[in-house]
Design goal:
By secondary structure, the chain is mainly β. Helices cover about 0% and strands about 75% of the residues.
Length: about 150
């Protein structure tokens, strides 16, 4: 499980929790897939990022540094005037892993998150006693920032 501690100015991802399941191919390379749950303040929406996770451990010692990458797509409900799903990337620039038992470890990493969302707005005007569709406006939002992740492996 990973729980990044971060805040952003325009769109705040208040909380995120994720889990990754995969296979340790050798002492250095881990490949897995994961699912997360995050809340975006703008649009008041929950998203479910689905991602693939690659991690490279530098050594096979009790304490080892690693590099990682998570990439995928964040699922969310599509509706007007709200945020829609988009691409999701977490580049873990650097991390450290500490074995605490034969099949258990803790890790901590710093990285950079990127989330692309689509914001849709529809404009209506009032005429002849009712609201009528006037035009729609769509823009892609790119939200990014640093993250700190703390995790447990078992």
């Amino acid at each position: 499980l990973h729980y990044p501690l971060r805040r952003q100015r325009q769109m705040c991802i208040r909380d995120r929790i994720s889990t990754t399941h995969g296979y340790q191919i050798n002492t250095h390379l881990f490949v897995g897939a994961g699912l997360g749950c995050e809340y975006h303040e703008m649009g008041k929406r929950w998203f479910l990022p689905l991602f693939v996770d690659f991690r490279y451990n530098i050594s096979d010692r009790k304490f080892t540094p690693f590099f990682g990458l998570k990439a995928g797509y964040a699922l969310g409900k599509k509706s007007s005037d709200k945020l829609n799903p988009g691409y999701y990337v977490n580049l873990t620039a650097f991390g450290a892993r500490l074995k605490i038992a034969p099949n258990m470890a803790m890790n901590m990493s710093i990285g950079y998150n990127y989330q692309q969302c689509v914001h849709e707005e529809k404009y209506y005007h009032y005429r002849n006693g009712g609201f009528h569709f006037y035009e729609s406006y769509t823009r892609r939002l790119h939200h990014h920032g640093p993250s700190l992740r703390i995790g447990v492996e078992f």
